C-alpha cells in the first residue's frame, strides 16, 4: 500500500470516527434534554467551562511535539512522561478548586461535578499525547478508533445513569469513563511507556515548543466562551439559547471536518524533506492539498446553509425555528474557517510555532470585536459578524502562510474551480425538492440526510468529470 493510500485510508477512519462521535454526543444531548431541567444544564455548563481551561492546559502541545519529532523514539517517551505529570498536576488542581467553584456558583452540586470532571483531565491529557504517538507510528486508523471507543463508553455510561436519575452527574460519569477507555486503548496499541528524561534540557525543549500551542488553545477557548458572554450580556438568555443551539449544530459539523484535516495535514506535510527550502516543498504541497480540502468542505457547509430548516427541526424541534437563519449564516462562516485547521500543523512543521499565539490572539480579538458590534443590532447581525471575522482572519492567515511557506491562495482557488459546477448541480437537488414539496411527509432529519446523500451522488461524478486528476492525486499516482 502506498503512503498516499495509507494516509487516505487513515483519513477516512478519522472522518468516520468524528461523524460517529458527534452522533453519539448528540444522542446523549437529546436524551439529557428530555430529562434534565434548564437550570441543571446551566450548572453543568458553568462547571465544564472552568474545567475546559484546565483541560487545555493539561493537553498543551504534547501531541504536536510528538508529531513534529523526527529523531529517536526515546524522545516520545519523554514527552509522554511530561504529559502524565501535567495531567496529574492539573487534575489535582481541579480537585482542589471543586469546593471554591461550588461556592462561587452557589450550587452545592457543582463540587462533586467539578471533582469528577477534574479526574477526566488526567486521562484526557495522556490520551491526547498517545494519540500523537499513534499518528507518529502511522497508525491513523487506531488513532481514530481509540477516541471512538471512548465515546461509545461515554454513551453506555451516561444514558443509563441519566435514566436512573443521576442528573448532571450522569454526564460527568460518562465523560470520565470515556476518557479512561480512550487513554487505556491508545496506550495498549502504542505499546510505548513514558520515561524520565536524562537531562532537564529535554523538558525545557518540550515545554518551550508546547507553550506556544498551549497559548493558542487557551486563546481559542477564550474566544468561544467570550462570544457567549457577549451575546448573553447584550441580548439576554433567550438569544443565547438560540445562538448556542446554532453554534452547537455547526460546531458538530466543523468537528467532522477539522479533526480529519488536522490529522491529514500532519501526516501529509511531515513527510516533506526539511533539508530543502520551505517554499520549494511546502508551497507546491499546499497547492495540491488545499483544493482537496475545498472539494470536501464546500458541499457540506453549502448543503447545511440550504437545508438548515430540516436540520434544525430534525435535531431541535419546531420550537427552535428562530435558530434556522443563524445556522445558515454560521455555516458560511464555518466554510471560510475550514482551512484554518491546517495552519497550526503547517506553521509548526516549518518552525514558526511561535507565531501561533499571535495568530490566535488576532483571531480572538477580531472575532470578539466583530461579535460585540454585531450583537448591538440583533441575533442575525451577530451571526453575520462571524462571517466578517472569518474573512478577516482568512486574509491575515493567507498572508502569513504565503510569507512562510510560499502557499498561493490565488492558485489554490483557481485550481478549485471544478467545485463550482459540481456545487451548482448538487444544490439543485434540495431546491427542486422544496419547489415540488418532495419528501415533506418524512421526518425532517431523515429528509435532510436523504437530500444530502442525493447531493453527494450528483456532486462527486460532476467533480470527477471536471477534475480528471482528482482520483490519481488521492491515490498518490500524481505527484503534482
TrEMBL record:
<keyword id="KW-0472">Membrane</keyword>
<keyword id="KW-1133">Transmembrane helix</keyword>
<protein>
    <recommendedName>
        <fullName>Polysaccharide biosynthesis protein</fullName>
    </recommendedName>
</protein>
<feature type="transmembrane region" description="Helical">
    <location>
        <begin position="445"/>
        <end position="466"/>
    </location>
</feature>
<feature type="transmembrane region" description="Helical">
    <location>
        <begin position="409"/>
        <end position="433"/>
    </location>
</feature>
<keyword id="KW-0812">Transmembrane</keyword>
<dbReference type="Pfam" id="PF13440">
    <property type="entry name" value="Polysacc_synt_3"/>
</dbReference>
<feature type="transmembrane region" description="Helical">
    <location>
        <begin position="41"/>
        <end position="67"/>
    </location>
</feature>
<feature type="transmembrane region" description="Helical">
    <location>
        <begin position="109"/>
        <end position="133"/>
    </location>
</feature>
<feature type="transmembrane region" description="Helical">
    <location>
        <begin position="79"/>
        <end position="103"/>
    </location>
</feature>
<feature type="transmembrane region" description="Helical">
    <location>
        <begin position="12"/>
        <end position="35"/>
    </location>
</feature>
<feature type="transmembrane region" description="Helical">
    <location>
        <begin position="328"/>
        <end position="349"/>
    </location>
</feature>
<feature type="transmembrane region" description="Helical">
    <location>
        <begin position="289"/>
        <end position="308"/>
    </location>
</feature>
<dbReference type="GO" id="GO:0005886">
    <property type="term" value="C:plasma membrane"/>
</dbReference>
<feature type="transmembrane region" description="Helical">
    <location>
        <begin position="361"/>
        <end position="381"/>
    </location>
</feature>
<dbReference type="InterPro" id="IPR050833">
    <property type="entry name" value="Poly_Biosynth_Transport"/>
</dbReference>
<feature type="transmembrane region" description="Helical">
    <location>
        <begin position="140"/>
        <end position="162"/>
    </location>
</feature>
<comment type="similarity">
    <text>Belongs to the polysaccharide synthase family.</text>
</comment>
<keyword id="KW-1003">Cell membrane</keyword>
<feature type="transmembrane region" description="Helical">
    <location>
        <begin position="168"/>
        <end position="190"/>
    </location>
</feature>
